[in-house]
Amino acid sequence: MATAVELERAHGAGHGDDHGHADHPPTSTGLDHRKLLMWAFLASDCMFFGSLIATYMIYRGRAEDLGFAPFPSEILDIPYTSLSAFVLLMSSLTMVLALSAIQKGDHRGLRIWLAATALLGSIFLGGQYFEFTEFYHEGLSLQTNMFGASFFVLTGFHGAHVTIGVIWLLTLLFLSLRGGVKQEDSLDVELAGLYWHFVDIVWIVIFTLVYLIPYEEVSETQTGAFALLGGILRSVAAIF
Amino acid sequence: MASVAQPAGAGAGTQTVARPAFKKESGLWSWITTVDHKRIGLLYGVTAIVYLLIGGLEALVIRTQLIEPNNDLITLERYNEFFTMHGTTMIFLAVMPLSSAFFNYIVPLQIGARDVAFPRLNAFSYWVFFFGGAILSLSWLANAAPNMGWYGYAPLTERGFNLGRNVDFWALGLQVLGIASVAASLNFIITILNMRAPGMTLMRMPLFTWNALIVSILIVMAFPAITIALALLSFDRFAGTSFYIPYIYDEATRQIVARGGDPLLWQHLFWIFGHPEVYILILPAFGIISELIPVFSRKPLFGYAVMVYATATIAFLGFGVWVHHMFTVGLGPVPNSVFSASTMLIAVPTGVKILNWTSTMWGGQLNFTTPMLFAVGLVSQFVIGGISGVMHGSPPIDQHHNDTYFVVAHFHYVLFGGSIFALLAGIYYWFPKFTGRMLSEKIGKLHFWVTFAGFNITFFPMHFLGLEGMPRRYGTYGEGSGLQFWHVVSSLGSYLLGFSFLIFMYNIAVSLQRGKKAGNDPWDGATLEWSIPSPPPVYNFATIPVVRHRDPLWEEKYGQYEGEGHTEEETVETTIAGFKIGEGQAPDEDAVEQAERRAEAGDEHNIHLPNPSFWPVVASLGIFLAAMGLLFSYPRIPIGALDLPLLTAAGIVTLIAGIYGWSLEPAS
């Protein structure tokens, strides 16, 4: 769906793009259509990640419960992932700098910071690829246990988001090199930025819940809805 | 109302502006590449009615199978496919897209806009829906129609129980339809929030548009849960995970091995989507009749603001009741009680709506046209379904009703007596706007009464069948079980109901040819869609109207209609418990200023409409091919370490080409 958002980038706020931005009839909220669309899409995306995170919270302890190694505590490498999390968070900074550059009409700055953001995103993806391979060699696969299945699906889904983001950034970079991103088109960059920051924020949640918070025994009475609610509540508690 | 044959667009000067000349599009290619919300609405409508008829035929086969004990019209395996496809078709391919058809056609007209916010995204939504429907329908040709119920409970959907491609057709079809629904809903949210005519504040929007907004928010927030649930299911089926599998039998060691998955996770995720889905099906219906009842009672809607709040409350509470679908799985007394209470709570805003419709009719000059008959039909029939809903909102009673025909009776009263009645009402009401011709009132009234009788004869006996112990989803029952009498009654009723749709089709066919010319405003309507010609010109409004009133067209025709006591609240600021409910009724300066800018933008040289585009079709074709590749997985092509089916690879390439073609093409 993110791509569909991207697709509409050529369509302006009103009913025609060919007579300059100033002439658009004002929108009812004063916000651009595409910006509002991006926020609505991100709200929806929260529910995607929410469902996956709830699934992970329910299942991550099942490996230990059933004695199917490897367990999360044995295999997750906090220092390594902290480093890649740091890289991803820094990419939010470069994203802000890219937007700031184009708003000031600084095309060179835009290209440098877009490239930097895409590079940092790619380093994160490379780190995830290395991590996945490493886990696989240590015996954790999708099929090994419930921890493996829910871990790979959750972080893989996030990785797919980052991949789409990197492709989007590179597309903008390419368009900019061909002179296609003008100062008044800064919204094009801002939309990519909104998406990119969202993906970063989701990683903060995932990193906290998956890597930092150790698994505690879920009591036997907490089944079904309670486990799910408990998972969500603990996730929320963990954020604050 | 012949006396208002020429109501101007609610702003000034409609008649003085020369109509810009737009080329009339025609031919198949123009329909494939259209981005006009009205044409897309018609595409949705026609497709949905075709699926409504297909789903109806499936129901007739089910009813015929059950007309006598131990019937062997179809095998029980085939019966599973029929009831699964009946449910899936009616929900995802008939009622939802029919609602979407009305959203597409009517919402931009009601808010005074020339199109939706993202016209190409709108076309994309339709074509993805079209291909999603195609995937589900192709399952019949592959002799692998889904066969585990529309709710797809694990572990029935797992490979261990369901080896064929049946489940895969269903899972991929629903995934594709989900993309279509979410894309369309995002579009409607932005359109409604951002494209209202000057002066149309949120609390002046027609209730149908309000319902469209709230339903769209529900879709955007609820569909992700089923998308993830289906994705996990597909991982189980294709990648050997066990998200919903607690145990497997290990061939090698001949032992039962724990896997740690939990079928209950499916139920939670599915119903977190599934219960809001119920409101996704019924709220558009509520919106439609909230438009109709005031028009045919000659009175403004009673309690407009409360109606809006009730709709929002239903939507909000709808996310907190899903466990009432799971009362019998044994979650324990505390969850059951909590969810029972929240379920019963929903009866409050729903009851408020029923009372408001009744109060709107109270003391009005009722005009029982066909659309009004269907609307009143909804109010009465939905109450029956609503009350049986409150009954099994109570866990101990639900223990008794669960998985019996009582539940089948309940949800057909709310979905047929509710949604379908309102959608038929909407077709009768807006058909003149779509086509320029009225549907025949004489045939229409016959249609209503045959539908009403057929519906009740079909579904009321199911209450008795359920209480006597007839289980759902069973393709047969024993001789001497005492169940046959009501089954026969129900089946005969279903034939009458089927016949009513023939009357309906006949009415459409005849009226398209010889129907009375409608004019702009055949019903003396209150909302902006009746201010423009029928069918509307491609640009909808020559001049963007300025809205000063909740019922803009009535205000235009009859002034503020002061002196009628019941409308006073519409024109002055009113407060209830300290909340302003009539806020912003007087035109503020901002609105006037906006109106001037809009009016300038609206003269003939400045009407800009988006160009047709074929990229949305290309992108949706890519999604279709990718899904078909997963279903028919040979031949395959290795790409690096990935071993992709050829069709899937082609689909992904097509999708990417569509996306880039789309984003690089100028919008208008």
Write the layout of secondary structure elements.
The complex is a heterodimer of chains A (about 240) and B (about 675).
Chain A: H1 2-7, H2 33-59, H3 62-66, H4 72-75, H5 78-103, H6 107-137, H7 146-177, H8 186-212, H9 224-239
Chain B: H1 28-33, H2 37-65, H3 76-110, H4 119-141, H5 166-194, H6 207-239, E1 247-250, E2 255-258, H7 263-297, H8 304-317, H9 333-361, H10 370-391, H11 395-401, H12 405-435, H13 441-467, H14 484-514, H15 552-558, H16 568-571, E3 575-576, E4 579-580, H17 589-601, H18 615-631, E5 636-639, E6 642-645, H19 646-664
Antiparallel strand pairs in B: 1-2, 3-4, 5-6
Describe the structure.
Chain A is mostly helical. Chain A has a single domain, classed as Four Helix Bundle (Hemerythrin (Met), subunit A) (Up-down Bundle), CATH 1.20.120.80. Chain A contains 9 helices and no strands. Chain A has helices at 2-7, 33-59, 62-66, 72-75, 78-103, 107-137, 146-177, 186-212, 224-239. With 668 residues, chain B is mostly helical. Chain B has 2 domains: 37-610, Cytochrome c oxidase-like, subunit I domain (Cytochrome C Oxidase, Chain A), CATH 1.20.210; 620-668, no CATH class. Chain B has helices at residues 28-33, 37-65, 76-110, 119-141, 166-194, 207-239, 263-297, 304-317, 333-361, 370-391, 395-401, 405-435, 441-467, 484-514, 552-558, 568-571, 589-601, 615-631, 646-664, and strands at 247-250, 255-258, 575-576, 579-580, 636-639, 642-645. In chain B, the strands form 3 sheets. A two-stranded antiparallel ribbon of chain B has the order 1-2. In chain B, strand 5 and strand 6 (642-645) form a beta hairpin. In chain B, helix 4 (119-141) packs antiparallel against helix 5 (166-194). At the A-B interface, helix 1, helix 2, helix 3, helix 7 and helix 9 of A face helix 4, helix 5, helix 6, helix 7 and helix 17 of B.
